[in-house]
Amino acid sequence: MSDTAETPALTSPYEALPPRMRGMSVNQIAEIADMAREDPEVIKLWIGEGDLPTPPFVVEAAEAAMRAGQTRYTYSQGLPRLRQALADYHQRHWGVEVAPDRFAITAGGMNAIMQAMQATLSPGDEVIIPGPHWPNLAATVNVCGAVPVTVPLRRGADGGFSLELADIEAAITPRTRMVAICSPSNPTGWVMPKGEMIALRDLVRARDLWLLSDEVYNHFTYGNAIAPSFLELCEPDEKLLVTNTFSKNWAMTGWRAGWIVVPEGLSGTFASLCQYNTTSIPTFIQYACIAALDQGDDFIRTMVARCRESRRIFCEGLGAIPGIRLQPPEGSFYLMFSVDGETDSRALAIRILREAKVGLAPGTAFGDDPDGKLRLCFAISPGLAEQAMERLSAFFRRG
């Protein structure tokens, strides 16, 4: 008998990946965008990004910090000055006192969500997410080895979206660990009313669950006030994690800077998570973020005003086309609409890209989509919105 052990069959690198990695889905928003990112003729409304450049005072703050030598490692949780600026910002806009040590600076809102889930989820846990939802949210749950559970945002006869608390309660199982809310919503523009936020807070309290609140679009509302924050409704030591980013308010998508608000007593945990995720984001970018917070309220108002007018252009234009169903979004800078007779929104988005030279996101990017929904981003100038609407109107009217 041979003393030589039998050599096991080698697997391919792909086969050696954990199942959650092999099953990672393609982001269809990026897939459509990659078809024409470099085409100058395409009006690009697929990704959540405005067309304004980062304001000069933010760029100048980063440049001054670099010239002053702020190019070295710093606190993993973020500069103390930046965390104080965030505390001042929340006090100014929502009237809440949040201790500076409850903020952790992240590499954008995406990394904030990742860290929130890394800190709280174990393999097999379930996370309840209202849908349609931003695809990255459910994908992050999967990456952490947990299971996303979608409950529907119900759609009324007028095309508007609403969330029933009973649907969330019915989805809770012994494995449920978290409820994740994005309000104002990407992709639907739904804004959770304050009374419903209180009811959800009470439900997660009663069931001892984590609540993740993605509040990226709070300033982008089209009524008389900005959207409420769960920080107004919860105690400092509750199981609440609030994620946000500098990307949308201050046109800083490429800077990759965001933040997370953590419960009282977890600062050390999230300082370590920041350390092991990114060490810290670049120090000079953090100085740019301080400038955005301290000097950027007028810029936010400019952004929201432009979005309001472009929202009007698209809602009126699309609403006048037979077979298109929509409800003007209450918040965010997205419009989700349905096209009668269409069941394959990905194929429809590709046709619109090729024939009308307008880039839209397919409804299938955000979950099951039986009724042919498309999402467009209207964080653009009203003039460009008019051009895009002319192209879309011509496309849909010729059939």
UniProtKB/TrEMBL annotation:
Co-factor requirement: pyridoxal 5'-phosphate
GO molecular function terms listed in the Swiss-Prot or TrEMBL record: L-aspartate:2-oxoglutarate aminotransferase activity; pyridoxal phosphate binding
Keyword Transferase among record annotations: yes
E.C. numbers: 2.6.1.1
The keyword Transferase is annotated on this UniProt entry: yes
Source species, domain of life: Bacteria
Record field: catalytic activity: L-aspartate + 2-oxoglutarate = oxaloacetate + L-glutamate
One Pfam family, short name: Aminotran_1_2
UniProt-listed CDD domains: AAT_like
One GO process term, biological-process aspect: amino acid metabolic process
Keywords linked to the UniProt accession: Aminotransferase, Pyridoxal phosphate, Transferase
Domain Aminotransferase class I/classII large: from-to ranges: 41-392
PANTHER family for this protein: AMINOTRANSFERASE, ASPARTATE AMINOTRANSFERASE
Family: Belongs to the class-I pyridoxal-phosphate-dependent aminotransferase family.
Name recorded for this polypeptide: aspartate transaminase
